[in-house]
Design goal:
The complex is a heterodimer of chains A (about 280) and B (about 350). Chain A is of the alpha/beta class and about 280 residues long. Chain A contains 10 helices and 12 strands. Chain B has one domain: Orthogonal Bundle (ABC transporter involved in vitamin B12 uptake, BtuC), CATH 1.10.3470. Classes of the chains: A alpha/beta (about 280), B mainly alpha (about 350).
Chain lengths: ~280, ~350
């Protein structure tokens, strides 16, 4: 991982794009969200802090993925607005939004037999115009995305031959090749083993701290969320119960309230962040 | 046994390395055979040269350049249209069975043709327009009946097969209930045939097909992004619904125009993209090679239809149905195992 970090730092100093990041704001203004007749969240307002790593947590069905879909303009709100840089996100051309906001969806399908480098290259779509040939800056973006995610050595491999962890890195690389200052991640570590989860979370932290990406992730693992989030958003039944730095907001009462889980909070000996120990039924 | 294996491996290697070159040279050989082989025409290479340079006798020239060449051109263009239409739908439905001849869009297009003949007589552009409208209408029917909290590829296919059967029955009824003369014209078409093709008939359609093929190529990048799932494509800045509608229109239009000219020819749209994919050994089917394989398939089927049986010419649709049927059974068995 250290090698990757230095590479990212080198890339950053080479790349002027990231220094001149435009001002960025993403928020929902009292939105109602739902599918067909079912309303999942009502009058929901969230502000995504610029330059921070925000993580949304909550029990199954609390609307956290729905909120992420709304933030990434995949789900239009039935009322209220999602605002990107002060404008209604649905009034902007979707391709312009794709230059600002990248998403790692849960349900991505890798086409049969596609090579890693070709999949990552698809992330360049929003930057390409009709009839425009592949440019050097596209190549650079693809290569630095693959370097940052440590998949350079698999560039010519077929995606379906890779392990789950490697595959997920390929999708992250595709989103990175999109070169967006804002990156949304929908349960990026699901189905990965613990080592790959930590590796990926470290990668996201690097992207946030070293490259200045504003990140928003939906996570299931509370302890990972507490360790990596600058801004933790706890949701329950379509409402935001608390948000802020994990150290400030995570209490036994909050976890009991949000998840209905009796627990103890210790200090994580590695990171000093809250560590949640579920009580469960005593044996 | 071992020698045999090495041998086949080498052949597959050669094919997968030079797929386009091989398809092209095979097509070229067929073109020459179609144009110049047959009774009383071109008995040696000198005769062929005279035909090419225009020094042969006028009767032979008419047979080769008016009758055979227009038919050959039609086979290539219609085959390409069907191949691309199949590639578009298989990509949209994300299933190798999701092709317009399985879901019955070509039968729907033929319903349009029959209705336009019954109502307005046998008028060229009315048939083409009728075919496009009929194709779109059957596509709409399939989409309405298959809708249940969104569309799953497989449900679209099953509903499509049902709609296709219904429309076939309707077509039969139409043919039975119109005047004998109209019925004869229509019945000639109903199996799909290139018999009696002329330049005047194929050229206007070829222009239209070229336009739609260009549209398909313009949408190609977006189509490939859609294959990764709606969310992924939308996140990359593809307007998912608009793109899908545009692709559907282009796919239906290609099948419909082809159907207006030749009647419903089955299985080219189904098989061409899959064969192209295997030949190329590539990720997703490329439109270019689907078109090439489609043209080659229809040309070969028509060659068999014309020369396979002594003294009689079969409609090419019969050949494609018979050969394609075998392929379809194989596909369904493989899908069923998944």
């Amino acid at each position: 991982m250290t090698a990757t970090v230095t590479e990212i730092q080198q890339n950053k100093s080479n790349d002027t794009d990231y220094q001149a990041l435009p001002e960025l704001s993403l928020s929902t203004q009292s939105v109602t969200l739902g599918y067909d007749q079912t309303i999942i969240a009502n009058n929901l307002s969230v502000d995504i802090p610029e330059g921070k790593f925000s993580i949304i947590v909550g029990p199954n069905g609390c609307g956290k993925s729905t909120l992420l879909r709304a933030l990434s303009r995949l789900l239009p709100p039935t009322s209220g607005q999602v605002r990107l840089n002060g404008q209604d996100i649905h009034s902007l051309p979707t391709r312009e939004v794709a230059k600002i906001l990248g998403l790692l969806p849960q349900s991505a399908i890798a086409p049969d037999g596609i090579k890693v480098v070709d999949l990552v290259a698809r992330g360049r779509f929003p930057h390409q115009k009709w009839f425009q040939p592949w440019r050097e800056q596209d190549q650079i973006a693809v290569e630095s995305a693959m370097k940052a995610t440590g998949i350079m050595e698999f560039a010519q491999h077929h995606v379906d031959q890779l392990s789950g962890g490697q595959k997920q890195r390929v999708w992250v690389a595709m989103a990175l090749a999109q070169e967006t200052p804002l990156l949304l991640l929908d349960e990026p570590t699901t189905y990965l083993d613990i080592a790959h989860q930590i590796e990926l979370m470290d990668l996201f932290q690097d992207l946030n701290r070293l490259q200045g990406h504003t990140m928003v992730a939906v996570l299931h693992d509370l302890n990972h969320a507490c360790r990596y989030a600058d801004n933790l958003i706890a949701m329950k039944a379509g409402k935001i119960i608390a948000s802020g730095a994990p150290k400030d907001i995570v209490t036994e009462a909050l976890i009991e309230d949000v998840f209905g889980l009796p627990c103890m909070i210790l200090e994580d000996p590695v990171s000093g962040t809250p560590l949640i120990i579920p009580k469960g039924r005593q044996v | 046994m071992k020698i045999y294996r090495t041998y086949t491996l080498t052949i597959t290697n050669v094919i997968s390395h030079y797929p386009k070159q091989i398809i092209c040279s095979f097509t070229l050989a067929l073109i020459i055979a179609t144009l110049f082989f047959g009774q009383h025409i071109a008995e040696n290479t000198q005769d062929i040269w005279q035909l090419i340079t225009g020094q042969a006798d006028p009767y032979q020239s008419i047979v080769v350049w008016q009758w055979r060449a227009s038919r050959l051109f039609a086979a290539l263009v219609i085959g390409a249209a069907l191949g691309i239409s199949g590639a578009v739908f298989q990509s949209l439905v994300r299933n190798p069975l999701g092709s317009p001849d399985i879901t019955g869009f070509n039968v729907g297009a033929f319903t349009g043709v029959l209705l336009s003949i019954a109502l307005f007589g046998n008028l060229y552009w009315f048939s083409v327009l009728g075919a496009i409208l009929g194709g779109l209408f059957s596509a709409l029917l399939v989409y309405i009946f298959a809708y249940r909290d969104g569309h799953s590829g497989f449900r679209l296919i099953i509903v499509g097969i049902a709609i296709s059967a219904t429309l076939s029955a309707f077509n039969q009824w139409l043919i039975l209930s119109v005047s004998l003369e109209t019925a004869m014209t229509a019945a000639l078409w109903s199996a799909g045939t290139l018999n009696g093709m002329t330049w005047a008939r194929i050229l206007p359609a070829a222009v239209l097909i070229t336009v739609f093929i260009l549209c398909a190529f313009l949408l190609n990048t977006r189509m490939k992004l859609l294959e990764m799932g709606d969310d992924t494509a939308a996140a990359l800045g593809v307007s998912v619904n608009k793109t899908r509608l545009a692709l559907m229109f282009v796919g239906v239009a290609l099948t419909a125009v082809a159907t207006a000219i030749t009647g419903p020819i089955a299985f080219i749209a189904l098989a061409a993209p899959q064969i192209a994919k295997r030949l190329e050994n590539s990720a997703s089917t490329s439109l270019g090679s689907s078109a090439l394989v489609g043209g080659l398939l229809l040309l070969s089927a028509d060659f068999i239809a014309q020369h396979g049986w002594e003294g009689s010419t079969l409609p090419v649709g019969l050949i494609t149905v018979s050969l394609g049927g075998i392929y379809l059974v194989f596909l369904i068995i493989r899908e069923g195992r998944k």
